[in-house]
Write a sequence for this structure.
């Protein structure tokens, strides 16, 4: 067992503490600059002096943001909290980290499957960053634009593709497995289906216009899609006088679809003798030119009909529309000579995503999630862009593609992805990890579990769920966490309680309050975790058995977890722990869960206060 | 750069491939995106703290996340702290820019500011002395200005007690609760947006989203309250939003009219608006919240002159010649949209550096 020393690096917030006294109190040697086997450092890695970092290379190190865990209060109070936090860190460091397992290097090749702006922009950026790119188009013209895209912008991109992009013959992506750094893609082309390996996959189909559904009862020959309307040739030729355009009546419109309806309305209205009525529920003008276009159309004489639910009513003849004008409070009727229905851009999902054994349901893979920007999906290294995601055609698609490529470049370059080490001798190959990992990291290969090299976000859900303890990620294995908490709880004054804090929400809020001098109860021990999903039933029960009076698990709000299900699993574990306590005749209120965001520090402070009020007054 | 910033503070000049002006959401995101590309940058912020305006926004989740993106600021700050190559100069104001080859020389001067109430993060270093930044490309991420509600004087802001802006409500909710006993709330949309009289022929795009989320949160915090939502059109924010919106329509009172006037009433502000029959109608509220729109940044004209830029659409910034724009400086955008927009600015800056003839700053970029 390595014996850790305490490397005390002064930092704001640590004033008034005595390193030597603290080291003695927690049973550590204070670092004197000599040789060391393992270390507890009082600042995070990014803030440590270079010289110290060099000395620590290859050693088990517990980086502790001590100032962020202390909070305010008198020197005696802070000394007690510092001792508990240092003990916890010393406990974890003393176990050392497991030796790194062999892992293949992430594959650097990028597959871009799709067409149009998104696909070309992603391929371009990936190639500029040095990744070999396979651009798999559905057709054979790289300059083919997606629906609604500016053809000259697409042609320019297609003409100026940088070196390093291999253009596949017309190809369809028929199957995909794996995750960041190690994808297998089956590509079906003229030569048949081929399996190829990639480090990252970008899915960016071009999209097509699809007509919104017609109101019930409308004569089928009257309803035509907006793209069937060529204002320049149609209107006068057919002698229309009254033209109706329905935008966002049968289904919700988008600002892009609405702008296209406005443009057509304006052009038609411009024809002599033509009167256009635009029927809609909401004027969707949230584009730079949307409002101007809307005013222009009104000024040009286009009649605007705002409809309520159930409108327009269609008369029995199937040709007359009726609705109530909201300003005049009058019933209006219109029997148009021609009627066009607005269209929205859609794209089909590839069939392989329907395979629920290999891919999570779409709502889990690609939820509307405030943290999944830039085309990211729950599966690291797999990106969905453009029409599939509903991104408006134009510069927004370029931005999205740039974000995706920066992310994949960072992932494949080894940007902060610790690998979950699988202990193959303990692993029972029960595939629990394959099932629970929200990022698709573990892959079952022949007779063992192989983690994808560039996809792990270290949420720790696998480690919490693995029944065989075979997943022991360095620094956050159950053994290390328990050893650390055992020592920390021993040093913490009574009543000792543990806050298990998600690194995306609770821990930043906790650190912010600490730095602002919030006084935490002396016996409160914070356990920083990357994600609340690391918690699990076992850890809660073991912490209680080690003498903690209470456990508060704090994670993100529903729908905000970076690992999609981490917060839900943690909440479930807390519920199970409460039930277990109840069954044993113990207080179920010893465990509780808090949903919060990183900008809600007050909610955390209140929950900690409530826990102490519920379970025993702080000293 | 975290470590070496300490030293450059005492230098009078430094080279950086990309200079990012503005340390809000877009500036931070641009620095992170450049770092993901492996390109160093220097982020400068005129105020004492990073995070910009969004830092004061509140979480709008009820039980589930409302996808407002307010906590992304915390995410960005945390990600920046974990990337040792990233550093930021605070209290630094860009006052002059000189074309130098394909790049720019930007003069930064220190700004005095009052002591902020939050302690500094490790990556925030205040600028102490005048500094010349030689850079290959510039990203302007100076954010937006919120429409001054007093300019719509008939809506009573600053004159009628009980009238506040959505930003002020946001701040109050971030600090913990609704101001006072607000049982009857009204939200008035499009204040300073879609307004021909003010010459603002654009939709601020974000207000429907944040005001309705605020309205729902207020209603959640004070279940006995009634919320009225005065609007022209409710903008669309995708599938999940539509599901939320149908719940909001059931829970809040939607009135498709913008009050023409808000005046003091007996028990609170009195709004005058067109009723369903087209006739003027009066109603008293405890609190009237004005959803003020987004305007071009105050610094836009000065920056245009400094970098020789043509003004962009509606007075927002548009880039050119190695100057890129990120976030709301270029037009109304939500927090997540600003983050994505910053990715594009970062990509364009990198491409500009690749294409630019060798310059001292450019060499840093290629190294």
């Amino acid at each position: 067992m390595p014996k850790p020393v305490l490397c005390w690096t002064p930092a704001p917030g640590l004033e008034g503490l005595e390193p030597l006294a603290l080291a003695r109190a927690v049973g550590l040697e204070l670092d004197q600059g000599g040789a060391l086997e393992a270390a507890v450092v009082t600042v995070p890695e990014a803030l440590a002096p270079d010289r110290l970092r060099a000395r620590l290379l290859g050693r088990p190190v517990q980086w502790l943001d001590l100032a962020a865990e202390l909070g305010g209060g008198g020197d005696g109070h802070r000394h007690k909290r510092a001792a508990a936090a240092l003990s916890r860190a010393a406990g974890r460091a003393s176990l050392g980290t497991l030796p790194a397992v062999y892992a293949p290097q992430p594959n650097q090749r990028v597959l871009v499957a799709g067409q149009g702006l998104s696909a070309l922009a992603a391929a371009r950026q990936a190639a500029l960053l040095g990744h070999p790119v396979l651009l798999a188009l559905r057709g054979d013209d790289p300059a083919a634009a997606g629906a609604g895209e500016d053809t000259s912008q697409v042609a320019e991109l297609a003409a100026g593709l940088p070196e390093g992009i291999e253009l596949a013959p017309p190809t369809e992506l028929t199957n995909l497995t794996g995750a960041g750094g190690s994808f297998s893609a089956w590509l079906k082309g003229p030569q048949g289906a081929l399996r190829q390996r990639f480090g990252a996959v970008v899915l960016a189909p071009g999209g097509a216009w699809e007509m919104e559904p017609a109101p019930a009862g409308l004569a089928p020959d009257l309803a035509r899609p907006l793209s069937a309307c060529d204002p320049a040739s149609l209107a006068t030729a057919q002698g229309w006088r009254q033209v109706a355009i329905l935008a966002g009546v049968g289904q919700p419109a988008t600002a892009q679809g609405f702008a296209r309806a406005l443009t057509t309305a304006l052009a038609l209205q411009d024809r002599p003798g033509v009167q256009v009525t635009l029927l809609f529920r909401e004027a969707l003008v949230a584009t730079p030119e949307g409002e101007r276009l809307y005013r222009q159309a009104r000024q040009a004489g286009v009649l605007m009909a705002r409809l309520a639910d159930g409108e327009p009513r269609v008369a029995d003849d199937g040709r007359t529309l009726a609705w109530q004008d909201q300003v005049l409070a009058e019933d209006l009727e219109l029997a148009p000579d021609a009627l066009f229905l607005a269209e929205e851009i859609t794209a089909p999902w590839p069939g392989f995503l329907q395979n629920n054994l290999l891919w999570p349901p779409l709502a889990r893979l690609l939820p509307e999630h405030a943290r999944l920007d830039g085309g990211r999906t729950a599966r690291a290294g797999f990106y969905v862009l453009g029409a599939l995601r509903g991104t408006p055609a134009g510069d927004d698609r370029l931005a999205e593609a740039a974000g995706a490529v920066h992310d994949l470049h960072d992932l494949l370059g080894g940007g902060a992805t610790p690998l979950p080490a699988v202990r193959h001798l303990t692993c029972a190959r029960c595939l629990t990890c394959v099932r629970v990992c929200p990022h698709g990291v573990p892959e079952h290969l022949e007779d063992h579990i192989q983690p994808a090299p560039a996809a792990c976000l270290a949420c720790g859900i696998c480690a919490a769920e693995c029944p065989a303890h075979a997943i022991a990620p360095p620094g956050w294995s159950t053994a290390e966490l328990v050893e650390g908490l055992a020592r920390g709880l021993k040093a913490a004054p009574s009543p000792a309680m543990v806050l298990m804090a998600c690194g995306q929400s609770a821990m930043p809020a906790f650190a912010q309050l600490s730095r602002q001098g919030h006084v935490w109860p002396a016996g409160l021990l914070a356990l920083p975790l990357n994600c609340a999903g690391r918690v699990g039933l076992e850890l809660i029960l073991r912490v209680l058995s080690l003498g903690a009076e209470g456990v508060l698990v704090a994670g993100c709000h529903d729908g905000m977890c970076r690992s999609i299900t981490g917060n839900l699993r943690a909440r479930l574990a807390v519920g199970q722990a409460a039930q277990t306590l109840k069954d044993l005749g113990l207080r179920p209120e010893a465990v509780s869960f808090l949903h919060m965001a990183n900008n809600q520090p007050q909610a955390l402070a209140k929950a900690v206060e409530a826990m102490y009020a519920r379970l025993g007054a702080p000293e | 750069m975290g470590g070496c910033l300490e030293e450059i503070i005492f230098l009078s000049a430094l080279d950086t491939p990309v200079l990012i002006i503005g340390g809000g959401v877009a500036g931070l995101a641009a620095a992170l995106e450049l770092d993901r590309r492996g390109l160093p940058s220097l982020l400068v912020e005129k105020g004492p703290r990073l995070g910009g305006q969004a830092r004061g926004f509140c979480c709008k989740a009820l039980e589930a996340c409302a996808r407002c993106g307010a906590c992304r600021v915390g995410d960005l700050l945390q990600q920046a702290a974990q990337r040792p190559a990233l550093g930021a100069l605070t209290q630094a104001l860009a006052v002059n820019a000189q074309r130098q080859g394909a790049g720019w020389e930007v003069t930064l001067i220190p700004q005095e500011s009052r002591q902020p109430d939050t302690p500094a993060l490790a990556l925030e270093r205040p600028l102490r002395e005048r500094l010349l930044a030689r850079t290959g490309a510039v990203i302007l991420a100076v954010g937006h200005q919120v429409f001054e509600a007093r300019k719509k004087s008939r809506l009573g802001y600053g004159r009628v007690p009980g009238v506040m802006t959505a930003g002020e409500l946001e701040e109050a909710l971030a600090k913990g609760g609704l101001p006072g006993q607000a049982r009857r709330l009204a939200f008035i949309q499009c204040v300073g947006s879609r307004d021909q009289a003010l010459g603002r022929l654009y939709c601020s795009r974000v207000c429907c989203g944040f005001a309705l989320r605020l309205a729902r949160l207020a209603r959640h915090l004070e279940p006995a309250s009634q919320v009225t939502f005065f609007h022209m059109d409710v903008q669309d924010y995708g599938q999940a939003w539509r599901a939320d919106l149908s719940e909001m329509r059931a829970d809040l009172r939607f009135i498709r009219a913008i009050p023409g006037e808000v005046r003091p009433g007996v028990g609170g502000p009195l709004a005058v608006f067109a009723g369903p029959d087209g006739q003027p109608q009066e109603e008293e509220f405890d609190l009237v919240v004005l959803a003020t729109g987004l305007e071009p940044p105050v610094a836009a004209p000065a920056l245009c002159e400094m970098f020789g830029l043509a003004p962009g659409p509606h007075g927002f910034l548009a880039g050119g010649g190695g100057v890129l724009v990120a976030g709301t400086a270029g037009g109304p955008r939500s927090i997540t949209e600003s983050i994505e927009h910053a990715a594009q600015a970062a990509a364009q800056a990198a491409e500009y550096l690749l294409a630019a003839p060798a310059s001292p700053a450019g060499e840093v970029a290629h190294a």
Summary: DSSP finds 18 helices and 28 strands in chain A.
